[in-house]
TrEMBL record:
Species annotation: Acidovorax bellezanensis
Phylogenetic classification of the source organism: Bacteria, Pseudomonadati, Pseudomonadota, Betaproteobacteria, Burkholderiales
Nucleotide-binding is among the record's keywords: no
Domain of life, per lineage: Bacteria
UniProt xrefs under InterPro entries: Homeodomain-like_sf, HTH-type_TetR-like_transc_reg, HTH_TetR, Tet_transcr_reg_TetR-rel_C_sf
Protein name stated in the entry: TetR/AcrR family transcriptional regulator
DNA-binding feature ranges: 31-50
A Pfam family that the UniProt record links to this protein: TetR_N
Keywords noted in UniProt: DNA-binding
All residue ranges annotated as the HTH tetR-type domain in the record: 9-68
SUPFAM superfamilies, per the entry: Homeodomain-like, Tetracyclin repressor-like, C-terminal domain
Amino acid sequence: MSTKRPDAATRRAQLLDAADAVFAAHGVTAPLELVVAQAGVGRATLYRQFPDRSAIMLALLERSLQQTQEVADQLEDDDEAFFKLLQRVAERIAVSPPFVDYWRTVERGDEIMALARNRLWQVFQAPMQRAVEAGLCSAALSRSDLLLVFGMLGASLRGETPSQRQALARRALHFILEGLRA
């Protein structure tokens, strides 16, 4: 009797889950052996999927953007979608400070980051406009304003423990939402 091996997509997701957990706990410079151990796979499996740490980070960024887009799609008819998406970003920042710090170190003109910021803007644009039209948001933000909001949410990175970061993220989000709500 043979056991069926998981397909490449399953292994990839398994490795990304492991990398996310390892990097959140130990930083993005953690040995990739920890990712392999967390995923319960062999080293060759990791390198078949991701040739280096940078490839893992790019895949994590892509997955985060895709998940944010999926949440936005689910909230398509919700006038509160803009605020719920901001809450999701705040929570993500609070639980993955090393990941956020990694991307903060990338140069401002980096093409990949420019594309990521553009995608994030596109995800937020329609929900923000819907909130303005529904009278829930005082005014539409510019692209640079939205990036500033994300930077403000990044203040939660100053917390030393996960619970402190979550509390700071909630507090920052509260101030931001108070300023944005009509």
